[in-house]
Amino acid sequence: MNSFISIDVVFYLVGALLLSVGVMNAADASNPKRWTTALFWSLFSVGFLFADLMLWGLGKALTYRIIGGIVMLLALFAGFNLLGSGGQVIDLSAEKNEHAERLGNRLFLPAVFIPIITVLLTLFGKNITVGQMPLLDPKNLTLACLALACALSLTFACWTTKAHPFTAVREARRLVDAVGWALILPMMLAMLGGVFVVAKTGGSIQSLVSAMVNPESRTALIIIYALGMAIFTMIMGNAFAAFPVMAAGIALPFLILGHGAKPAPLLALGMLSGYCGTLMTPMAANFNIVPAALLELKDKYKIIRYQIPTALGVLVCNIVLMIFIV
User: Cα separation of 70 and 49, whole Å?
Assistant: First the structure.
């Protein structure tokens, strides 16, 4: 450890919270799937809490196999719908209403403090030291600042509401249960994007496009590039994961090098085309499924259905702009 708040400390905090969620589910007899729910979140916490220990004791190869096995188990738990939530969660409505009437808009201050403190620490906290050791991890400064901002905001929230810190853990468990397995989807998709890049999927797409489309047709290549960004994002759930694959497979070899397209507008509009896919897929869980779960909507796909016309319209505009601008 070369700083007080390092990436390791952040991961340990996340792992401890996930393990707490697992333990609370195991102790909740009102949850009909309490053991599988507890096992799901406990397994998910293993990578955060014990990855360094496993790397030290078992080596990289065995650790990677264990983590891969855990990922497959998590997918099976989600696929067979083995997660549930307790039916006798403590009703805090009266307490919440009392705090809301007493504090008014001050209730929002902890949430507002998080981005403000994070930005201030990112700009001015890099050189803060305690003794001879940096306070914040310089290699992961933003994440360390965010973690410290969350801790300070939580402390302020507890001081303002006079609530016990365990209330935050209990409410975290309620939110985690409400969101369910979709909570881990962004992390899994980010891992999948890395796998596609390492597997050189961009080269395969380049070969496929060469076989199916005339490389001399600039318009056809632009349409395939824009549609490919949207469709690949729908599959991956993340435009950042689709971007390197489609850029390496179509934009760079065919449009930029082959037809002399302007890189900046081409790639910017390509990313925007990817976000059109984000609006149309449940795989983009952090944008579509998680908010629906947090808002407790009965139809979790309703948000996507409303977004589809806008996404298709923006996608057509992107294609037209690419044809005339780049």
Answer: 14
End-to-end CA distance of the chain: 48
pLDDT computed for residue 91 by the predictor: 61
Rounded to whole angstroms, how far apart are CA atoms 134 and 148?
A: 13
Count of C-beta atoms within a 10 Å radius of residue 64: 14
pLDDT at 87 over 70: no
Mean pLDDT of the chain: 85
Contacts of 210 (CB under 8 A, 6+ apart): none
Give the span between the Cα atoms of 131 and 308, in whole angstroms.
55
Residue with token string 């934009």: 251
pLDDT tens track for 280-312: 988 777 777 777 777 777 777 888 888 999 999
The three-state secondary structure class of 92 is coil
Residues 6+ apart with CB under 8 A from 312: 276
Burial category of 8 from C-beta neighbours within 10 Å (exposed 0-12, middle 13-18, buried 19 and up): middle
- What does pTM read for this prediction? 0.72
- CA atoms in the 13 A half-sphere facing the CB of 164: 4
CA 13 to chain centroid = 17
